[in-house]
Amino acid sequence: MEVGIQGVLGSFHDQAAAKYFAREDLELRPFNDFRSLAKSIQAKELDYGVMAIENTIAGSILPNYALINEYDLEVVGEVYIRIEMNLIVNPGAKVEELNQVFSHPMALLQCADFLALHPQIKLTEYEDTADSVRLIKESQLTNAAAIASKKAAELFGMEVLHENIETNKLNYTRFLIMKSRMNGHTAEPEKASLRIMTKHDPGRLSDVLVAFKEHKINMTKIQSMPVLGQPYRYAFNVDVVWEDYKDYQSALKAIEKSAELIKIHGEYKKGVMPEYDKGSR
Predict the structure, then answer these.
(1) Which domains, from first to last, does the chain contain?
(2) pLDDT tens-place string over residues 251-281
(3) Residues facing residue 162 across a β-bridge
(4) pLDDT tens, residue by residue, 15-66
(5) pTM of the entire structure?
(6) Which pLDDT value is given to residue 278?
């Protein structure tokens, strides 16, 4: 099975694919950017693709919502990954000897408290966490470190100098599993990702929300997105879950009178959401 991911092997997309397809024989195909990944999914060059869609700290990844709609991709599943950051070095390096650290800008930001304890280390933004590990290995940078996953350290034979250096320990990313659009589904779904554009009348969005409530549909996410070519018009990306699939079907029927567009990006099994310990930080 060939699965496309954004980023290199050892990235968090790699981890997400391995977790979701744990029972499958995988061949991962890395992509430099999300658009190239989306194009290949649409063209059926891949069996599936994995795309990050939201993070508990950074929020929604809005360009990826736009790509899902633009390339008419079908969402078939989801998986949640804890984002654990690690300080990775060439074997034998010591933290007091480091003068530079490479990683994705978001990773550097998420490790701000740890890095503040080592002001001699210059922060250098790099395009990918895992690829920053490859960089310091191949360049033999003994006074530099990378911030990435343990999997990246193992892949490149590097040393984890400090584990879990992220400031917030409740940092999770939700990844969507996608394929080229096909009709039907293999098992009765529990969750759906929708794109809804309401009629341009007062109260139409409220009517949609009330319809979901009346049909016992739980909305787990709503995200507004500008409609291209229609200034100040918005569509809503909505995730919903239900107990009875028939209730969901009835809700879709009920909101038709309030909506100009109802597009089902996908109906699928719910992923296992992280359980938060209120005492954790």
Answers:
(1) 2-82+171-180 (3.40.190.10), 86-162 (3.40.190.10), 191-268 (3.30.70.260)
(2) 999 999 999 999 999 999 999 888 765 555 5
(3) 87
(4) 999 999 998 899 999 999 999 999 999 999 999 999 999 998 888 999 999 9
(5) 0.86
(6) 52
pLDDT tens track for 151-168: 999 999 999 999 999 999
**What's the token pair of residue 260?**
């100009």
> Read out DSSP for the chain?
-EEEEES-TTSHHHHHHHHHTTTS--EEEEESSHHHHHHHHHTTSSSEEEEEEEETTTEE-HHHHHHHHHTTEEEEEEEEEE---EEEESTT--GGG--EEEE-HHHHHHTHHHHHT-TTSEEEE-S-HHHHHHHHHHTT-TTEEEEE-HHHHHHTT-EEEES---S-S--EEEEEEEEE--SS-SS--SEEEEEEEE-SSTTHHHHHHHHHHHTTPEEEEEEEEEPTTSTT-EEEEEEEE-S-HHHHHHHHHHHGGGEEEEEEEEEEPPP-PPPPPTT--
CA gap 190, 243 in Å, rounded: 7
